[in-house]
Amino acid sequence: MKNGYGNIFNKKGGKKMQVIRYKEKYKQDFIDLNKRWIDKFFKIEPHDLEQLENVETYIEQGGMIFFAIEDDHVLSTCMVTELQPKVWEICKFATNEKFQGRGAGKIVFTEAINYVKEQGAKKIVIYSNKNLKTALHIYQLFGFNEVPVDIDDYERCDYQAELLLNE
Asked: Per-residue pLDDT tens for 52-68?
């Protein structure tokens, strides 16, 4: 794969899963998947809407959105944004329920981490909720450690994790 992006063979279905960076063509999929996921467990909050409605602004500021695509369907998506110099956030991480269990979430999550490393990040943070056991498990698999919550942007946020990156 060139630069970590390209075709990935899906072991379960034998089809190719392609991981791509943001394309406007998939913007609505990004918004819809995240709104559905948030609505399933919580309520959409003002900060959610600000991020979802201003995708291009985040991209212009160096952020990125990754998509796992198969047969032109978005399986999973993940966004990264720079919070402050060298500190990045992984956010708006959602998987289409019809395609769960195929590894798409881990793939976009991996690409998000690789991207922020390429940008020179020293730390990655995640804000989440302790009820999301599957997500917390993924964070731990990737080496994130729980730390005290230091924001109040989200009513639902009762969990924060960070990954310190080597120089």
From this structure: 999 999 999 999 999 99
